[in-house]
Write a structure and sequence with these properties.
Blueprint: E1 19-22, H1 32-38, E2 46-53, H2 55-59, H3 63-72, E3 78-86, H4 91-94, H5 97-108, E4 116-121, H6 123-135, E5 141-146, H7 149-153, E6 163-165, E7 168-172, E8 180-184, H8 193-210, H9 212-220, H10 222-226, H11 230-250, H12 267-276, H13 283-300, H14 306-318, H15 341-350, E9 356-361, E10 364-368, H16 373-388
Helix pairs in contact: 8-9, 8-11, 8-13, 12-13, 12-15, 13-14, 13-16
The chain binds nicotinamide-adenine-dinucleotide and zinc ion.
Residues 154, 202, 267, 283, 287 line the site of zinc ion.
Cofactor: NAD(+)
GO biological process, one term: amino acid biosynthetic process
EC number: 4.2.3.4
Length: 395
C-alpha cells in the first residue's frame, strides 16, 4: 500500500472574551461603547450597524434617537450606517425570514470584517444577530448588549449563537466569541417580574454546580431579589456572569468539543419542555422545572441529601417558579413518555456519549452517562403531587 503523505500544522487563534458592566451606555459621557468600537480604527470611520429588540422602543420611544445621538457625538470615528428592529423572543429564532432580512441589511450597509454588528436585546436577538455576524462575510465583529437578566448573566455572556431549524432549538449555530459584551443594568428596569426571575434561575443553576456559598447567599437574599432590590440584582447578575465566563475560559473546552456540559444542568428536560409547549413556557421557567427533576433524581439515586434537595426545591419555588408542568407526563400514541425523548435529543444535539450533570451536594456536581427512566418518572410524579397540594404561584 502506498504510504500517505501528510502536512500538519497547529493553528492557534487566541480570543479575548470581555464582559463589561456599566449603566446608561448611550449617555454621551459614557465612552465605553465608543472606545470598544474604535480601538482598532485606522483612518476611515468604523462602520457600525445596530440591530435592536423592538421591546426597547416599546418602553422608551426615544431609544432610536438616543442611539443615533450617541454615535453622532463620535461621527469622525464611527459611522452608524444602519438601524433595524426585530421582535424579541423565540419567534426571531424560529422564523428564518428575520435572519435573511438581516443579511440583506448587512449587504446594503456594506459591512465588512472590520465593521461591527451590534445586537441589543434578549438572548433570542443576541443568538440570531450573533449567528448573522459570524456567517456574513465569514465573520463580522459582533458586539452584544444584553437587555434581559437571563442574557446578562448567562446566554449573552457566552460564546455561542444560533437559530432554530427543523423544529429543533439551536440546530444551526456557531461558536464565536463576541468582540465584547456590555451589560447595562438599566435595561433590566422594564422587564416584568416573570422575565426578571428567569435570570435568577440561571444564577441558582451555576451556584448549584460550582459554588455552594453563592447558593447560600441567593437563598438569604431571595426576598431582596423578589422585591427587585437594584444592588442585589446587580450582584447576582455579575456573579452569575463571572461564573459562566470562568467556566467557558477555564474548563478547557470553550467550544464544547467534549461531552461534559455542567452549565446545562437541568437543561435536558428544559429544552424538551420549551419545544413541547411551543415556547409558552419560557427558558427560565423550563430550567426551574428541569432542575427540580434532576435535583430529585440526584436525591433518589443516593447522591444528594434530602435536606439539601428540599432547600433547592424550596428556593426555586420561593423565587416564584413552578416545579411541575403537565407536559412532563405527556405520553405518545406508542405509550412512551415524551419528556424522556429529551434525553435522546440532548445526546443527539451535543454528540458523543450521553452526559448529564447531577448533584452530590449544593455546589458539587458529577456526571452520569445513564439515567433510569423509571426513576425519572417517579421524580416527575413526586413533583406533580407536591404541586397539586400547594397554591400555585402567579404565572
Ligand atoms: N447562546 C447561548 O449560550 C444561550 C444561553 C442561554 C440561552 N440562550 C437563548 O436565549 C433565549 C432566551 O433569552 P431571554 O431569556 O433573554 O429571552 P428573549 O430574548 O426571548 O426575550 C424575552 C422577552 O423579553 C423582551 N425583552 C428583551 N429585553 C427587554 C427589556 N429590556 N424590557 C422589556 N422586555 C424586554 C423580548 O422582546 C422578549 O419578548 C433562548 O432562545 C435561549 O435559547 C442562549
Ligand atoms: Zn439556560
Amino acid at each position: 500500500m502506498m504510504k500517505a503523505r501528510q502536512i500538519e500544522k497547529q493553528l492557534l487563534v487566541p480570543y479575548q472574551h470581555r464582559v463589561y458592566f456599566t449603566q446608561d451606555v448611550f449617555e454621551p459621557e459614557n465612552t465605553l461603547l465608543a472606545s470598544l468600537l474604535t480601538e482598532s480604527t485606522e483612518g476611515e470611520a468604523t462602520r457600525v450597524y445596530v440591530a435592536v429588540d423592538e421591546q426597547l422602543r416599546e418602553h422608551d420611544s426615544a431609544f432610536q434617537d438616543k442611539v443615533h445621538a450617541y454615535f453622532n457625538n463620535f461621527r469622525e470615528k464611527i459611522d452608524c450606517c444602519g438601524y433595524s428592529e426585530y421582535p424579541g423572543g423565540e419567534i426571531l429564532k424560529n422564523d428564518l425570514r428575520y435572519l435573511k432580512d438581516l443579511y440583506h441589511e448587512i449587504e446594503q450597509a456594506k459591512l465588512c470584517r472590520h465593521s461591527y454588528l451590534i445586537g441589543i436585546g434578549g438572548g433570542a436577538l443576541l443568538d440570531m444577530t450573533g449567528f448573522a455576524a459570524a456567517t456574513a462575510h465569514r465573520g463580522i465583529r459582533h458586539l452584544r448588549l444584553p437587555t434581559t437578566s437571563l442574557s446578562q448573566g448567562d446566554g449573552g455572556v457566552g460564546v455561542k449563537n444560533g437559530v432554530n431549524y427543523l423544529g429543533k432549538k439551536n440546530f444551526i449555530g456557531t461558536f464565536m466569541p463576541p468582540h465584547a459584551v456590555v451589560n447595562d443594568l438599566n435595561f433590566l428596569k422594564t422587564l416584568s417580574n416573570n422575565q426578571m426571575r428567569d435570570g435568577y434561575i440561571e444564577a441558582v443553576k451555576v451556584a448549584l454546580i460550582r459554588d455552594g456559598a453563592f447558593f447560600d447567599l441567593i437563598e438569604s437574599r431571595a426576598e431582596l431579589l423578589i422585591n427587585r432590590d437594584p444592588d442585589t440584582i446587580s450582584w447576582i447578575i455579575e456573579k452569575s456572569a463571572q461564573h459562566h465566563v470562568d467556566h467557558i475560559a477555564q474548563s478547557g473546552d470553550p467550544f464544547e468539543l467534549k461531552s461534559a456540559r455542567p452549565l446545562d444542568f437541568g437543561h435536558w428536560v428544559a429544552h424538551k419542555l420549551e419545544t413541547m409547549s411551543a415556547f409558552k413556557i419560557s427558558h427560565g421557567e423550563a430550567v426551574a422545572i428541569g432542575m427540580a427533576v434532576d435535583v430529585l433524581y440526584s436525591q433518589k439515586i443516593g447522591h444528594l441529601a434530602k435536606k439539601q434537595a428540599s432547600r433547592i426545591i424550596n428556593l426555586i419555588e420561593q423565587l416564584g417558579f413552578k416545579t411541575y408542568s403537565p407536559e412532563l407526563l405527556t405520553v405518545s400514541e406508542q405509550g412512551r413518555n415524551l419528556i424522556l425523548e429529551g434525553l435522546d435529543e440532548f445526546r443527539e444535539h451535543l454528540g458523543g456519549q450521553l452526559t448529564i450533570s447531577l448533584l452530590n451536594d449544593i455546589g458539587d456536581s458529577f456526571e452520569t452517562h445513564e439515567m433510569i427512566p423509571k426513576v425519572i418518572l417517579e421524580c416527575i410524579e413526586g413533583l406533580r403531587d407536591r404541586n397539586a397540594s400547594r397554591p400555585h404561584p402567579e404565572s
